[in-house]
Amino acid sequence: MIRGIDERDASSAVNWSGVEQAFNDAVERGVMPGATVVVRRGAEIVFEGCFGARQIVPQRHPMRLETVFDLSSLTKVLATSVAVMMLVREGKLKLDDRVTRFFHNFGVHGKTHITFRHLLGHYSGLAAWRPYYEQIAGSERGGRINFLASRGAKEFVYEQIHREKPEARPGTRAIYSDLNFMLLGEVVEQIAGVELNRFCRDRIFRPLGLRATDFVDMSLIRTRRLEPVPEMFAATEVCPSRKRLLIGEVHDENAYAMGGVAGHAGLFAPVGEVDKIAAELIACYHGRSELVPRQIVGEFWKRAGAVEGSSWALGWDTPAQGHSAAGSHFSPAAVGHLGFTGTSIWLEPEREIAVTILTNRVHPRRDNEAIREFRPLIHDRIMEVLDGSN
Fold it and tell me: What whole-number distance in Å separates Cα of residue 186 and Cα of residue 314?
């Protein structure tokens, strides 16, 4: 366990014992095998810690602050959305461009009017999810050798999304959709002329000095040019379809079938490096960083408001009234996101607060949903400490 101290008042350290106890209790109750957390206020990390284990089956291994997690849907905000922000800054993409500007066949089934703003705000009308991986696995079983996790499989998924029939007219209904972000990942690749992981590595992660943040490209694993080091990673599920414990291999089935690099999932990082991205985006919001212009970050972090009752901004979520995973102390202007594997990030831009919590709650099984109750409680406890230390 590692503690941070509020360095603005070194003479009286802030008491984080209640937060530590809450994490220890959660591990003891089986909410998750382990967790890492970083709390930032302004330029300082005021609290950081690691709890429990990065793996409990078949052997138990302790968590470390440097443990790398499968971020799951945090990929949407820490990679894909930032990449889109950069393309908007460069004038290569406009939020109100129609998707058909880049993918002419996408307009079938009444999808002609869907824009990139619709995709980012989760009101495109596209379905939440489709089991594309089943078709890809079926093709491989049928004799298409090495199709699973290949570039060809990724292109197959893109083609299927282009052919999808929407479930609602654009702008009429909020549907949190992986398909939206798969498509955004495709447009980044189309415009940039490189894979999404290469774009993010060269334009976001390396410029910020991040050494352990990246996608795990399954094609490199297949050719044995890359072998993830198990000791670095938090384990996720004992996967029923892959029939193995997943360590350093993307948990999301569609992302895996697409080769580990997709707009909706596939990013891996330790908690400290997630915090660095958060800090940089907050600096952009206040005009102190040139990574992304202030006005673009502000637009992405403003609740879209196009669909009544939706909490979505562009790419990012905002606290839902009354039952938010962020708890009850973040303001309506806060932004954040959750990941299926047990990850979360919440930012209070004006106050320059960032709370990053990474857990492996899907280890060894995904049906452990106790984190639903834990998330708002731990966020409340953290924010109460911060508010009490002002």
Answer: 17
